[in-house]
Amino acid sequence: MPIAIGTDHDVNIARNAYLAAKMLTGVRAAVGVRAMSKFTGIVDSPPRRMISKSGLARR
């Protein structure tokens, strides 16, 4: 069952459990994850680094 890490408040745990149940019963994963991120502060994955010939470079 997908639950966002860092949900330490009762309201967040209840909301994320509800959203996880909806995801398991047919709601698109992108919709559920976006809703979870709205209430837990998850914004995006860390930026990826590109490796250039001169070394590491940020995009």
Descriptive report:
Helix 1 runs antiparallel to helix 2. The mean pLDDT is 66. With 59 residues, this protein is an alpha+beta fold. It has one domain. It contains 2 helices and 2 strands.
Characteristic key phrases:
59 residues; alpha+beta; two-stranded antiparallel sheet; elongated
Strands, helices and their partners?
Blueprint: H1 10-24, H2 29-40, E1 49-52, E2 55-58
Helix pairs in contact: 1-2
Portion of residues within helices:
40-55%
| Overall domain count | 1
Structural class: alpha+beta
Strand content: 5-15%
Shape: elongated
Task: List the strand order in the largest sheet.
Answer: 1-2
Order of helices and strands: HHEE
| Overall number of strands | 2
Distance N to C terminus: 33 Å
Average residue pLDDT: 66
Indicate the radius of gyration in whole angstroms. Answer: 16 Å
- Helices, by number, come to 2
How is the biggest beta sheet arranged?
2 strands, antiparallel
- State the low-pLDDT regions, or none: none
Quickly describe the structure.
By secondary structure, the protein is an alpha+beta fold. The protein contains 2 helices and 2 strands.
